[in-house]
Amino acid sequence: MIRKDYIERLIEQFAAAFAALLKLRRERKPEEAQQLIRDTALSVLGMEYSALTMADAASTARLLGHPLRVVGLARLVAEEGELLHEQGEPARATLRWGLALELFLEAQAMGATLEGEDARVLAELRKKV
Predict the structure, then answer these.
(1) Residue 121: is it exposed, middle or buried by C-beta count within 10 angstroms (0-12/13-18/19+)?
(2) What ranges do the domains of the chain cover?
């Protein structure tokens, strides 16, 4: 029961964050979007975003310990890539997209089944990287 509640809460928190990120990107508010990415990593994943994106994907996935948490981070990193691309930083965007793709693959190796928006983001990343 606790595990199911935890997973449902994670899904709700990430869904709210991604909806807010999309809104901020549409409104062209990159600084607020970047801050939301950092805040979401800290509040939902319990770690600083910069620490989570410093190591390789496999180490980060092991640290996070649950495929849903890894997928959430992958989505946050992919969103940061979009922000960087929109700000005219294609090289940095590509690096972020590469990390996001690796995180998705790690999540799948941990047993994650990617559906809906997660599957769409993964497909887009495969085209970009």
Answers:
(1) buried
(2) 2-128
